[in-house]
Write the structure tokens for this entry.
Amino acid sequence: MKKVLVVGGAGYVGCVLVEELLAKGYSVRVFDRLFFGRDHAGEFLDRVELVVEDMRDFNESHVEDCGAVINIGGLSNDPTAEFNPKANEELNTHASIKVAEVAKKAGVPRLIFASTCSIYDRGVGEEVRDLLLDEDSEVDPKAAYATSKLAAEQAILAMADDDFVPVSFRKGTIFGFSARMRYDLVVNAFVKDALMRGKLSVHYGGAMWRPLIDVKDVARAYVMALDSDADLIRGQIFNLSAGNFRISELALRVQRALQDLGVQAELDVDFSYRLVRSYRVSGDKILKTLGFQPRVTVEESVAHMVEQIERHGFTDFSHPRYYNIEWMKLLESAVETVSTHGYVLSKPEWGDRGLEGERARLLAERARQGS
């Protein structure tokens, strides 16, 4: 296997995936905008090739010498998709298709696309249609994020042929620690709430179903797809889930895991109606086809998360960098400020003066005025 290009390799999943690839002996090229900076990727940046560019500018130079592309880039949840629907469509659909087209044209034999189980969302109150859904189930997503992922998935898988092997992984809601930590994912949010205020917030009584999987298991599945026989994955869709949980059950399991660590947290349950996602999926296909089985339980992930949060000092829980939508809003606001003024603190025309130079200018000005 030649070099693997990871689009979005400095993100939440990317930071875990790149470490897994390096541990397995792969050479890695990371393609990322570095929206969240580079500090969180510092542990591996000296071991990878880094390309800091936009997916919308993807070209053949980016896949040079690559034997596979893993595309986990783009916007990653409903709030960010709804915040900027145009960017969501450009990145999650059009740019993702472009990445696949460029890879195929350049002769890259394999591409793994990160899709989402939210494609299956039926919503709360659809008990008659509340079935265990597999990769052949009819889907009709309404949310911008899910529709953008489905459109890309369909176009990318249609490119499959004898020489090009695309595969799509529909991931459940991910949880677990990453160096590019997120506290806007349900299990991670429970842990954050417990550590920050001693409560787990459960919305709509926790009635919603959600398939979940730890981020380390997601990384393992991607690496497995690199090593799998091409005929097993060519043009295929696989659900990635470690099981389906009602959010109420999930809260209780997290609460118990935290208690075992000496962290006490009450349940703060809200029963008011909210627009919430709810769906259950089957993970049988990837088990039967590739032999993939998730290894990390919710309880194990919570214990690891608490340990790593303390070790890395990620305890400023309200900082916007841990929440995708809040960080994007902050960046957009900063861009608006800079585009209006051209600077933030350092005024460009003052840059070379220095303190002594400014004093000399003022003295000269006063001398002129005195004469």
Observations:
- The mean pLDDT is 91.
- The chain has one domain: 3-331.
- The two ends are 79 Å apart (CA to CA).
- Residues 257 and 303 are 7 Å apart (CA to CA).
